[in-house]
Amino acid sequence: MTSLGAAIIGCGAIAPLHVNAIASVEGARLVAAADSNARQAAAFGAVYGCETVPDYHELLERTDIDVVHLCTPHYLHAQMAIDFLNAGKHVLTEKPLAADVPSARRIIETADCSKGQLGIVFQNRYNEPSQRIRQVIDSGQLGRLVCMKGVVTWHRSEQYYSESGWRGKWATEGGGVLINQTIHTLDLLQWFGGEISAVSGSVSTDVLDGVIEVEDSAHACITFANKARGLFYGTNAYPVNSPVELELVFEQGTLLQRRDCLYLWQDGREQLLCEPGTVTNGGKSYWGSGHQWLIHDFYTHLREGRRFWLDGREGIKALEIIAGIYRSSDRRSTLVTASGNHLN
How does DSSP classify residue 209? Predict the structure, then answer.
């Protein structure tokens, strides 16, 4: 079996999940890590026994590195992904694919011409409830999907933003709760619903005004080409991190995800279809357990010479929804004159 050498770019909070997953993949090994914070990089290398460098450019031509994991802030994804893909490396990037849609398109164009593959980490697609929901949709066993909703009520403190130089800013984060926390739920809604025909919505900063430039709350109505309707609400203004809630209404029953358990409501009865196992990835509980399954699947596709299914064209879809919500919210802004007349 050919060994695959891996590099981690960005030694922050999410990086250990990638390291642990790499360690569990047969024939994969962590070779190096890069981070512009020399102290953080050194500590990371000491814990995980890998070489560290301050500049990712030092890794571009390394023949012992086949796969690169991008665990960096949003605004760095595009150029890093493009550089590594141009060097022929396989790239697996944390969400979002990029900080904006045009940058994401540039990554996809580069991947189309690269010997390397591009994958994006939307690990919630690998959670058992998500997999079961998709099976129900594909089988048609409950009939047509009529409507669905996704609700994310989480908490992010002032300290969460103040301790980071890039969060909460348009130029570096690319948005707020939409692009950072709830993008996973938006991705699931479009994965379940299919092609989208229209998006409307609005954003606001309800609690963190003066702390961040971006939104901490958002809602949207998504119309799908199959006539199903999706409603979405997400916020970082809740005092706690509450479990994500999903509901999918079909002609012959309803699927509900509550506290990571999936239920079927049908004929006046509720049936438990699956419940979560113990999360042992060392990460935060709301990250779920899908990272390991996704990373394993990515490496399996590389070894077998198959195109990874969760690629740039899949990854850009949630970004396009977010861009649509922002555009819709901007159009709804209303100016009020001194006389009380509304200017739309």
Answer: B
Token readout for 62 is: 């390394």
- Tell me, yes or no, whether 336 lies in a domain: no
Q: What is the pLDDT along the chain (344 residues), one digit of tens a residue?
A: 579 999 999 999 999 999 999 999 999 999 999 999 999 999 999 999 999 999 999 999 999 999 999 999 999 999 999 999 999 999 999 999 999 999 999 999 999 999 999 999 999 999 999 999 999 999 999 999 999 999 999 999 999 999 999 999 999 999 999 999 999 999 999 999 999 999 999 999 999 999 999 999 999 999 999 999 999 999 999 999 999 999 999 999 999 999 999 999 999 999 999 998 655 555 445 545 789 999 999 999 999 999 999 999 999 999 999 999 999 999 864 333 333 333 33
18 and 62 assigned to the same domain: yes
Output the furthest CA–CA distance in the chain (Å, rounded). 76
Hunting for tokens 């690319």 — which residue is that?
Answer: 174
In this structure, is residue 229 part of a structural domain? Answer: yes
Indicate whether 148 and 271 sit together in one domain.
yes
3-state secondary structure 60-110: CCCCCCCEEEECCCHHHHHHHHHHHHHCCCEEEEECCCCCCHHHHHHHHHH
Is 27 part of a structural domain of the chain?
Answer: yes
In terms of phi and psi (left: phi > 0; alpha: psi -120 to 50; beta: otherwise), the region of 268 is: left
177 lies in some domain: yes
Spell out a b/e string for 294-308, using b for 16 or more CB atoms within 10 Å of the CB, else e: bbbbbbebbeeeeeb
Position of tokens 């005004």?
A: 209
**63 and 145 part of one domain:** no
Which tokens is 31 given?
């070779």
Q: Which residues pair with 256 in a beta bridge?
A: 247, 263
Pair of tokens at residue 133? 């929901």
**Close Cβ partners of 232 (under 8 Å, ≥ 6 residues apart):** 149, 150, 151, 182, 185, 186, 189, 201, 218, 219, 220, 221, 222
Residues 102 and 129 in one domain: no
Domain encompassing residue 55: 4-121+294-310
